[in-house]
TrEMBL record:
Cellular component GO terms, alphabetical: trans-Golgi network
Membrane-spanning segments: 490-509
Any GO BP annotation: apoptotic process
Bias kind Acidic residues: ranges: 540-551
Gene: KEX1
Family note: Belongs to the peptidase S10 family.
UniProt name for this protein: Pheromone-processing carboxypeptidase KEX1
InterPro entries attached to this UniProt entry: AB_hydrolase_fold, Peptidase_S10
Reaction catalysis annotation: a diacylglycerol + H2O = a monoacylglycerol + a fatty acid + H(+); a monoacylglycerol + H2O = glycerol + a fatty acid + H(+); Preferential release of a C-terminal arginine or lysine residue
Region (Disordered): 525-551
Family matches, as Pfam families: Peptidase_S10
GO MF entry, a single one: diacylglycerol lipase activity
Length: 551
């Protein structure tokens, strides 16, 4: 394999010359399978693609290294890199803009975005020899880590390593962690796991979509829609009850999702709409129901298909001649065959916690794919280290600049964070909160240069103050001091905020409709994308309850 210098990405098309990038990017391929006997190339030419964003402010004496995985299954981690937590954000005109201070996860940690399993994003494998099980996915990721550490040996010492991801990565990450913990000589020693709106265990998560709709006031409790979907919930629970260990996926449980979409269909000005399953505050056109969201995804598709972009990112166009797609249906469909047989990843969490690996489960509360309520149910029923659930641990108020952004609860190696008014892709709506969550979990404490005062700070339970942005550059407006939440981070309806020393009106525009290539998964995809806080058009209408008698 080449040395790390061969992976350098000095410039990306679309970067703005007037905005100096203060971190290094490296990208390329690492083998995912060992060579067969007598061969030198990896079996099936299997390679995973990665993009490393170096930290702007590396931590000492122990650096932080985060591996980020999007879900799907089969969805590219460029979703996270360009729209959720990366330092370069795609714009609708194809430009790359630097994220605002306090948004990017690589401010204090090195972040590696990995396209996996093989065949996802820019990763490739010969003859469509995709991974056929969650166990195989885990083993191939461990092999990737072994090879990665050979290219970057500095990470083998004095480095805290974290696995992070969202959605179907909730299945990947526990399986990967279990494989690492069972490995006789693991390439890394994990310091923690972060799973956002994760697909973990249908035994506790299935049916929580209906609870969420009722709790939000979109459906009345025991109303016609609630009654219509109840038989599907009953069938799901009956199927799960037949198994001693819940499986990762059930056809009966997927029917709940499909029925909810059908029940939310409404005609508006002659056009059929349905609920946006990734953010229930909005609607989308039928049959997309959330897959047209957000508007920047079209620009990302076009950007990652450009020849100059692929050349800059060291994409192997010989082995990967086809156009980049956000979610590759064949990868997902092959792997999901195993999901209907494999144990749910949530069943691995108790042993992971008992073996001393800290876990952070976080959730945006506006998600219908993997709702926050379902994750709360899972935690409430899970037993680890001699107790069930979070015990007497207090669910504390969590604020940024004294404005409520969610709740924070920690007990026995497990932390649960709920982000208010955030979607399936929580960093999309709550970039300050999501970054603060990461820093708290990694116990990164940002010093405050004297005599400056923080531009952005956070508290849990009215104390434990942490600095998120020490000083705001002059070309950025300071965030709100205190008010009710916004959809950009301190979420909710966008209202006027009282600023430090000045007033700034943030307005919510109507997003332009922007086409998006529809994902071809058999049920709801467990993946969607996110973007930074900024003034932007709102693509979808707000969801309002129609005539329940018509459902």
């Amino acid at each position: 394999m080449p040395g790390s210098s061969a992976y350098a990405v000095p410039f990306l098309p679309g970067e703005q010359p007037e905005q100096e990038r203060r971190f290094d990017i490296e990208a390329g391929y690492i083998p995912a399978r060992a060579p067969e006997k007598g061969q030198t190339a990896p079996k099936d030419e299997a390679h995973l693609y990665f993009m490393l964003h170096r930290a702007m402010h590396p931590q000492q004496p122990r650096r932080k290294l985060v591996f980020w995985l999007n879900g799907g299954p089969g969805c590219s981690s460029f979703d996270g890199a360009l729209m959720e937590l990366g330092a370069l954000r795609i714009q609708e005109d194809g430009r790359l803009a630097l994220a605002r201070p306090g948004y990017a996860w690589n401010e204090y940690a090195d972040v590696v975005y990995v396209d996996q399993p093989v065949g996802t994003g820019f990763s490739y494998v010969a003859n469509e020899a995709y991974a056929t099980s969650l166990t195989q996915v885990a083993d191939e990721f461990v092999y990737f880590l072994e090879q990665f550490m050979q290219v970057y040996p500095a990470y083998t010492n004095d480095t805290d390593v974290y696995l992070a991801g969202e959605s179907f990565a909730g299945q990947y990450i526990p399986y990967m962690t279990d494989a690492l913990l069972r490995h006789p000589t693991p390439p890394v020693r994990l310091s923690g796991l972060l799973i956002g709106n994760g697909d973990l265990n249908p035994a506790y998560q299935s049916g929580s979509q209906v609870e969420t709709l009722v709790h939000a006031g979109i459906w009345p409790k025991h109303g016609p829609s609630h009654q219509h979907v109840q038989p599907y919930i009953d069938a799901c629970r009956a199927a799960i009850a037949k198994d001693a260990v819940p499986r990762a996926e059930y056809h009966e449980c997927n029917a709940i999702d499909s029925d909810i979409v059908e029940l939310t269909r409404q005609k508006v000005s002659g056009v059929e709409h349905c609920i946006n399953v990734y953010d229930m505050r909005y609607t989308d056109t039928v049959p997309q129901c959330g897959m047209n969201w957000p508007p920047e995804v079209g620009a990302m598709h076009a950007y990652l298909r450009r020849e100059d972009v692929k050349a800059a990112l060291h994409v192997n166009t010989h082995m990967h001649p086809e156009a980049w797609v956000e979610c590759r249906p064949n990868v997902g469909s092959v792997l999901r065959h195993d999901s209907f047989k494999a144990p749910a990843s949530g069943t691995l969490l108790p042993s992971i916690l008992q073996r001393g690996v800290p876990v952070l489960l976080y959730a945006g509360d506006q998600d219908l794919v993997c709702p926050a309520l379902g994750i709360q149910h899972l935690v409430d029923q899970m037993e680890w280290l001699g107790q069930r659930g979070m015990g007497r641990a207090k669910r504390a108020a969590w604020t940024v600049n004294h404005a409520p952004i969610g709740t924070w609860q920690t007990a026995r190696n497990l932390t649960m964070a709920t982000l208010m008014n955030a979607s399936h892709m929580a960093p999309y709506d709550a970039p300050y909160a999501a970054h603060d969550m990461l820093l708290r979990f990694m116990d990164v404490r940002i010093p405050l240069p004297s005599p400056a005062s923080p531009s952005v700070s956070s508290q849990v339970d009215g104390k434990d103050t942490r600095i998120l942005v020490p000083m705001m550059p002059h070309d950025f407006a300071a965030p709100p001091k205190a008010a009710s939440a916004t959809s950009a981070d301190l979420a909710g309806s966008l209202v006027a905020w009282v600023l430090i020393g000045m007033a700034l009106a943030l307005c919510l525009y109507m997003r332009r409709r922007l086409g998006r290539q529809r994902r071809e998964t058999p049920t709801w995809s467990y993946e969607a994308v996110a973007q930074p806080e900024q003034e932007r058009d709102v693509e979808m209408d707000a969801f309002t309850l129609g005539d329940e008698d018509d459902t």
